[in-house]
């Protein structure tokens, strides 16, 4: 990733004092042109990198900044030891390297800070996987990862949500792990797009590179696009009465129901409530799954749909049990 490479450049210049463009390119296994772009990027964000001309020239950091770079306080050092999600590191193929890096950093830090870092490491663990973990990075994760690293244009075949397969040429700018799902954020001829990795059917890495937008920040883009996506999701509101036996179950299993608001119980003990879903079909399937434990008050069209679905279930199993006397349709 480019961010990793920029950090590596800073560490190289911090450790060695001065390096030529060719030396940096060889150390990071990139082109000379890429190093020049990276230096422009560092300068653009205020990092004082200076180019010295001549036989003994090269790139270096201003002395004051170089001294400040090594100064980390206790809290900053401790924050480095909040372990990232293991399944994300495994997907990226760097789980072992990440652990070794933390161990090396632990060994190199001042003894006064080592105990605080160890406490963070042993007391906080981040797990973003699900209880029944499934792989959702797709078959072409490694190819896309390499394309992101090398700023390489790719052609993909992508299955849209409606099942149609489309072909797109994209500039992959970054990978995002959200829970157990991976997404690639890319620039296309139609603007910025996000593709779910598990829906990518083919990846063809082209003999073309692209110039990454200097102002692009993956985390900022993701947060903004995610917020816009959530705000534009459809909302379907229903008014119901709930059996007291299922209220806590609804609150605990809130993966489908987006929001629940309840009122004071009715004389018969049932609880009026408002539920929000994305769409009508989702609401109908959910309510039907609770059989006689939810009474729909509104909208009337939802009651009709649920009745039709229930009748379809009866007809389906009625045909299977015809002649056995185990099911009678009204």
Automatic annotation (TrEMBL):
UniProt keyword list: DNA-binding, Transcription, Transcription regulation
SUPFAM superfamilies (alphabetical): Winged helix' DNA-binding domain (SSF46785)
Residue ranges occupied by any HTH deoR-type domain in the UniProt entry: 2-57
SMART domains hit by this protein: HTH_DEOR
Keyword Transcription regulation part of the UniProt annotation: yes
Protein name as catalogued: DNA-binding transcriptional regulator YafY
Top-level taxon of origin: Bacteria
GO MF term list: DNA binding
Signal peptide (UniProt feature, chain positions): none
Protein species of origin: Laceyella sediminis
InterPro entries from the UniProt entry: CBASS_pafABC_assoc_protein, DeoR_HTH, HTH_11, PafC-like, Tscrpt_reg_HTH_DeoR_CS, WCX_dom, WH-like_DNA-bd_sf, WH_DNA-bd_sf
């Amino acid at each position: 990733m480019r961010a990793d490479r920029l950090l590596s450049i800073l560490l190289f210049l911090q450790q060695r004092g001065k390096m030529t463009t060719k030396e940096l390119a060889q150390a990071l296994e990139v082109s000379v042109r890429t190093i020049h772009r990276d230096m422009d990027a560092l300068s653009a964000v205020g990092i004082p990198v200076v180019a010295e001309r001549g036989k003994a020239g090269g790139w270096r950091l201003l002395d004051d900044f170089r001294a400040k770079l090594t100064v980390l306080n206790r809290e900053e050092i401790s924050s480095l030891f909040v372990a990232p999600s293991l399944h994300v590191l495994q997907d990226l193929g760097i789980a072992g390297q990440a652990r070794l890096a933390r161990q090396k950093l632990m060994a190199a830090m001042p003894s006064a800070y080592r105990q605080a870092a160890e406490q963070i490491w042993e007391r906080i663990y981040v797990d973003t996987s699900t209880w029944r973990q499934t792989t959702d990075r797709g078959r072409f994760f490694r190819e896309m990862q390499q394309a992101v690293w090398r700023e390489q244009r790719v052609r993909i075949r992508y299955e849209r949500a409606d099942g149609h397969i489309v072909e797109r040429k994209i500039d992959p700018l970054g990978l995002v792990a959200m829970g157990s799902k991976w997404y690639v954020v890319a620039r296309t001829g139609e603007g910025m797009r996000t593709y779910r990795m598990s829906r990518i059917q083919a990846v063809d890495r082209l003999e073309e590179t692209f110039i990454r937008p200097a102002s692009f920040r993956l985390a900022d883009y993701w947060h903004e696009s995610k917020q816009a996506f959530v705000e534009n999701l459809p909302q379907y509101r229903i008014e119901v009465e709930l059996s007291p036996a299922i209220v806590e179950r609804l609150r605990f299993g809130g993966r489908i129901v987006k929001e629940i608001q309840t009122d004071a119980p009715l004389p018969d003990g049932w609880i009026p409530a408002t539920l929000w879903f994305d769409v009508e079909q989702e609401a109908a399937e959910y309510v039907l799954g609770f059989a006689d434990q939810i009474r729909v008050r509104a909208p009337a069209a939802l009651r009709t749909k649920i009745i039709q679905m229930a009748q379809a279930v009866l007809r389906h199993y009625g045909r299977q049990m015809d002649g056995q006397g185990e099911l009678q349709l009204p």
